[in-house]
Amino acid sequence: MVRSDARENRSRILAAAREAFTEDGATSMNQVAQRAGVGAGTLYRNFPTREALVLAVYQDEVERITGAVSGLLADRSPLEALRLWTLDLVEAMRRKHGLGDALSPTAHQAITEQTYGPVVAAITDLFDAGKKGGSIRPDADAGDFLQLTGALWRAASTPVDRAPHMLDLILDGLRATPRS
Amino acid sequence: MVRSDARENRSRILAAAREAFTEDGATSMNQVAQRAGVGAGTLYRNFPTREALVLAVYQDEVERITGAVSGLLADRSPLEALRLWTLDLVEAMRRKHGLGDALSPTAHQAITEQTYGPVVAAITDLFDAGKKGGSIRPDADAGDFLQLTGALWRAASTPVDRAPHMLDLILDGLRATPRS
DNA sequence: ACCTGAACACCGTTCAAGT
DNA sequence: ACCTGAACACCGTTCAAGT
């Protein structure tokens, strides 16, 4: 039997860690525990090592993002859903990049590998909706699209965030029928 | 006036750090100091931070390697000098890679940037000697060659080191006249 | 002028004691 | 069954005291 406090602690730690790492990727484990209002032991029972916590934060983020697809498709056109979803993805990529040096190369690679599949699957779902409705060209490739979005978060957000405009250009290229 | 012990300490620290980092990239600063037979304070006066020490170890290594070019060219054919020199470079690359996770991405980038210029210059010197003597084709490019050697240290050295053989293939491509 | 090494403020991680 | 938080063995770095 899992106690309710145990169930809650995990997500509280995850939330605290996400905030803390966004502010400073070098935030210590004890600082995360304190921020979550939890003893150090509890933190370590949930996430036995620092790397495990960092990884979990990102898996959580990816699950949140990929899980949002069906909701976006429910009351929007596929192209608009794809646009909103991708902007969200770019935000997450920027947060990850903000961690920077706090992540070891090995950890960074582990994240990329565990993340790639689900993200491509989510894009595929969005693409399929558009292809079925005839708004997205049938030969559009999810892998290519993810590659292109990689260029979006590299685009500095100063003085204005160019990413939305760049995304619009990419989306224009995906349309089944060229814009008038 | 620089005391003789002060002059010696720097190179003793550098030597100890090179050995220690080769064995374990996570070797602590105090361990390096102890290994060098030096107080922690002396270590820190010479290298004010961990990253500074790691960087200095590599600069030292690069200077040693690039400095060996003229000696190699003195009593050998340019192609043979290039072959021996490149094998030495591959060894150094393998040592650097062995550090792995102990290096932050930023530090790793700093090393690459500070290293690229001198290494390309050394290759250019070796190439020029061969081009002048007619043994290396005139359109051979130092940057391309460095890029190719990057593939050599990635070649695992089990069960036998394939790098020398791969290098021979590359060198064959550089010859002014094809092999009979 | 330079060196040593104890000491400082931290770190990640563990585990006895509580509820 | 789960939690807390003091404690442990370390870390990078500093600095008073020595020579």
The largest pleated sheet of chain A is described as:
none
Q: Which chains share the greatest interface?
A: A-B, 7 and 7 residues
As a percent range, the share of helical residues of chain A equals: over 70%
At the third CATH level, what is the topology name of the largest domain in chain A? Tetracycline Repressor, domain 2
CATH superfamily of the largest domain in chain A: Tetracycline Repressor, domain 2
State the assembly state of the protein chains. Answer: homodimer
> Structural class of the helix and strand makeup of chain A?
mainly alpha
Order of helices and strands of chain A: HHHHHHHHH
Counting DSSP E segments of at least 2 residues, the number of strands of chain A comes to 0
Per CATH, the class of the largest domain in chain A reads Mainly Alpha
Q: Overall 3D geometry of chain A?
A: elongated
CATH structural architecture of the largest domain in chain A: Orthogonal Bundle
Cα radius of gyration of chain A in angstroms: 19 Å
- What is the distance, rounded to the nearest whole angstrom, between the alpha carbons of the first and last residues of chain A? 61 Å
User: Please, how many domains of chain A?
Assistant: 2
Number of helices of chain A: 9
Tell me briefly what this model is:
Chain A has 2 domains: 1-48, Arc Repressor Mutant, subunit A (Orthogonal Bundle), CATH 1.10.10; 51-174, Tetracycline Repressor, domain 2 (Orthogonal Bundle).
